[in-house]
Recover the amino acids of this structure.
């Protein structure tokens, strides 16, 4: 079973829930934890781990165009077709030539295709590092860091999910990034169940609905957790009603959680009330897991994985 | 003042300011591939060359475009030897405008539907806000970015005169602060730090990060249950914190 925790909004307690669930699941079966927040990976910290990785590997999931100035005739075709505004033509007066804005380039390669002079070649760049910790409370953690200034987080997520498949597991627990864009889509693609964490704030509720459009689009079964439910009991009640039958549990607000993480102490190693509340959520999920075996798998769109090379 | 909410995947500034958004003032479009089966020779070149893995091709079948994974780059329609791939325009985002006070505008960018590549939406929202700021002779143009380091964040930060990096004194906060400050250095955008919940946790962690980079902590916001409650009710604007 592949279980992802997502939220839309950042800072609502996603990684706290993932780290605790991972530790709970690992007590009874082999698991693998995957930190899909490759922009700013934090799951290792919630699991009390400083950055001592067993394996680090710089990877390339993107390319950049190299423009051969001798061949370029300044026709401007590449500038015209770039969907991301990454290519600019510097006009005479300055030095004539086509300039690439690295920060806007998505590495799609359309410029290489359209150049009539064949002056553009795509070159692979190292844009991320995969990091593996083999034994975190008895289970492996697969993480990655997108290098600041690079693009391609969705493809990095695909890569670490592939890496995680190499481990022997019964449950894969994924920490999805905030937002709804490419790395979130990549994290949610092909999973069996999504735990959606929210908080009773207008933005928490709004972002829950935003991420739900992605979850529903892929027809992923899901449940809802309200973190810090007691900071606004009225709004919490409203969310509970909206998601009646979908509720997995509620977690209370406790500023000692903040202090525990400041000491790098995983929630499961504390005696805070939060721990018991997440344990209850875990219980609900294990019941679900049993039910899952008799259910049809959700639609997957990763058919292209059979394709070689890319 | 013009505030542009560039967190287009999850825009929230209007909620924190306690206002409702009205109808979009502008739609943002992107191009997506559309197959002309009459011309397609099922050669599969589009599927092999697409770097987003957004074209699926089973043998002897027509290619299928997976829009959720498509960035709209156009490689497929440029590379097709039979000109069998056309372009269809699709709305991927919208711009919303709201006047909060006489001299305070909120511009909100929002993605529409399941959008893989949200960076271009940020650029459009930004251009819209820049035009308005110029027209209204605004003193300040403030961008609220998404979380993380991805293209949407970069597109909001690039060419800014100053960036505030908001953090908190925990290992999580210092870890992510280091990353965003590195990004800002690469973008050559001057940065200062705003430390939230500054009196909880361990401030030394933050000190280490900022000292090494010669960056100052501009503001410290202490933990306040009142603030948490006001935030949860969407009434932050009514608290006299400034």
């Amino acid at each position: 079973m592949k279980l992802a925790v997502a939220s839309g909004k950042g800072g609502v307690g996603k990684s706290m829930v993932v780290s605790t669930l991972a530790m709970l699941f690992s007590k009874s079966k082999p698991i693998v934890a995957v930190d899909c927040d490759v922009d700013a990976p934090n799951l290792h910290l919630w699991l009390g781990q400083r950055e001592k990785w067993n394996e680090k590997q710089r990877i390339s999931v993107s390319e950049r165009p190299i423009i051969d100035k001798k061949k370029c005739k300044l026709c401007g075709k590449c500038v015209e077709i770039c969907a991301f505004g990454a290519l600019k033509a510097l006009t005479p007066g300055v030095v004539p030539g086509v300039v690439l804005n690295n920060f806007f380039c998505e590495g799609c390669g359309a410029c290489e295709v359209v150049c009539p002079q064949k002056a553009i070649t795509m070159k692979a760049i190292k844009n991320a590092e995969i990091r593996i910790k083999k034994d975190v409370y008895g289970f492996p953690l697969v993480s990655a860091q997108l290098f600041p200034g690079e693009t391609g987080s969705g493809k990095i997520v695909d890569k670490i999910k592939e890496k995680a498949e190499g481990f022997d597991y019964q449950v894969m627990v994924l920490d999805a990034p905030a937002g709804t864009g490419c790395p979130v889509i990549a994290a949610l693609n092909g999973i069996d169940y999504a735990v959606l964490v929210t908080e009773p704030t207008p933005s928490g509720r709004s972002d829950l609905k935003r991420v739900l459009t992605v979850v529903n689009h892929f027809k992923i079964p899901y449940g809802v957790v309200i973190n810090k439910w007691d900071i606004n009991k009225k709004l919490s009640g409203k969310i509970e009603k909206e998601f009646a039958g979908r509720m997995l549990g509620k977690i209370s607000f406790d500023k000692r959680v903040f202090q525990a993480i400041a000491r790098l102490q995983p929630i499961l190693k504390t005696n805070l009330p939060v721990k018991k509340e997440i344990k209850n959520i875990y219980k609900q999920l294990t019941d679900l897991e049993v039910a899952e075996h008799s259910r049809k798998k959700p639609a997957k769109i990763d058919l292209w994985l059979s394709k070689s090379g890319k | 003042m013009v505030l542009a909410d560039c967190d287009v995947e999850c825009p929230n500034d209007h909620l924190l300011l306690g206002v409702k958004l009205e109808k979009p003032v502008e739609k943002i479009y992107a191009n997506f591939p559309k197959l002309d089966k009459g011309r397609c020779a099922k050669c599969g070149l589009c599927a092999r060359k697409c770097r987003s893995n957004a074209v699926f091709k089973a043998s002897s079948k027509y290619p299928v475009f997976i829009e959720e994974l498509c960035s709209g780059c156009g490689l497929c329609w440029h590379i097709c030897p039979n000109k069998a791939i056309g372009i269809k325009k699709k709305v991927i985002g919208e711009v919303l405008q709201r006047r909060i006070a006489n001299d305070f505008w909120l511009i909100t960018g929002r993605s529409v539907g399941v959008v893989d590549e949200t960076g271009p939406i940020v650029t459009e929202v930004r251009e819209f806000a820049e035009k308005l700021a110029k027209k209204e002779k605004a003193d300040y143009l403030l961008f609220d970015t998404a979380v993380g380091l991805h293209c949407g964040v970069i597109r909001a930060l690039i060419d800014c005169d100053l960036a505030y990096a908001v953090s908190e004194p925990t290992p999580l906060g210092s870890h992510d602060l280091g990353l965003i400050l590195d990004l800002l250095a690469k973008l050559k955008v001057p940065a200062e730090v705003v430390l939230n919940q500054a009196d909880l946790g361990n401030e030394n962690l933050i000190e280490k990060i900022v000292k090494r980079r010669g960056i100052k902590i501009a503001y410290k916001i202490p933990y306040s249950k009142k603030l948490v409650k006001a935030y949860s009710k969407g009434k932050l604007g009514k608290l006299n914190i400034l």
Remarks:
- Chain B has eight helices and ten strands.
- Helices of chain B lie at 13-16, 45-49, 75-79, 119-135, 151-157, 171-187, 203-213, 225-232.
- Chain B has a mean pLDDT of 93.
